[in-house]
Write a structure and sequence with these properties.
This protein is of the alpha+beta class. It has eleven helices and eight strands.
């Protein structure tokens, strides 16, 4: 077995950078990866990479996927990414963009990020109307019955989507919730085609929502921008009529993320 010194010489990777580069590779892939795939990317010896994966898993930075062989970001790495996105400078600009959307649409807007079991609200600006839906920052909502969640699901590789849906129960929240995988996948195909997602009282009775993606520098979804409203004020068609406003704001957020 090559020792650590040999690995450093061969790969030209300092010892104190190896674990960081492994985490970077896992995050960059966007889907669960195996240690063997990272060996090919970094050129480090196989035993070294397996040892780094084991350490990262034990410390909560990586998490074994449902197939038992591949790994994705663990809870500590996900918290790190959220805390990074929440840095004061970035958040101040994000909230300014969100506020402009709320002013234009007159309804609450959110930025949500995918987590292991659902979407988590990262930022939120409330409508000025007294009638509002209480979903504060930090709230986790399901993938299959929310606009933000369905936007995320529609962005996934189809093979990984099948695995995720097989592992998550499609619990019914209202009579409009998609609980059949075939029907949900048809809805996701439509979402993928038109570039935005909707929630037609699927998560909460009397609430409608629309969401668009925020992308990274490789064109992958990293978060979503959504707006929701009670039916007492708006029909779903009212919100979808504002998709251009949401897309323009999402483009600004994408540029902010990439700057």
């Amino acid at each position: 077995m090559p020792d650590d010194g040999a690995a450093d010489t061969k790969g030209q990777i300092p010892t104190n950078l190896r674990l960081l580069l492994v985490l970077e590779e896992v995050a960059r892939a966007g889907v669960p990866v195996t240690p063997a795939e990272v060996v090919g990317s970094l050129g480090l010896p196989k035993p070294t990479v397996h040892r780094l994966f084991h350490t990262a898993e034990e410390e909560g930075f990586l998490q074994r996927d449902i197939d038992g062989r591949s790994y994705g970001p663990g809870p500590r790495l996900r918290r790190l990414s959220v805390n990074t996105l929440s840095s004061q400078r970035l958040r101040t600009v994000r909230l300014s963009i969100l506020n402009s959307v709320v002013e234009a649409m007159g309804e609450t807007c959110n930025i949500a990020v995918p987590d292991r079991e659902g979407m988590v609200y990262l930022d939120r600006i409330e409508t000025k109307w007294p009638l509002r839906i209480q979903l504060p920052v930090g709230t986790q909502v399901p993938f299959h019955c929310t606009a933000s969640g369905k936007m995320y699901l529609s962005s996934l590789n189809l093979r990984y989507l099948d695995r995720l849906l097989a592992a998550h129960a499609l619990n019914r929240h209202t009579k409009m919730t998609f609980t059949d995988i075939k029907a949900l996948k048809a809805e996701l195909a439509l979402t993928r085609k038109r570039g935005y997602s909707t929630d037609n009282e699927e998560f909460m009775e009397g609430m409608v929502a629309v969401a668009v993606p925020i992308l990274d520098d490789q064109g992958r979804l990293v978060s979503t921008l959504s707006a929701h409203a009670p039916l007492q004020r708006h029909q779903l068609s009212d919100l979808t009529g504002n998709v251009t406003t949401l897309r323009n704001a999402a483009q600004q957020l994408t540029e902010l993320l990439q700057s």
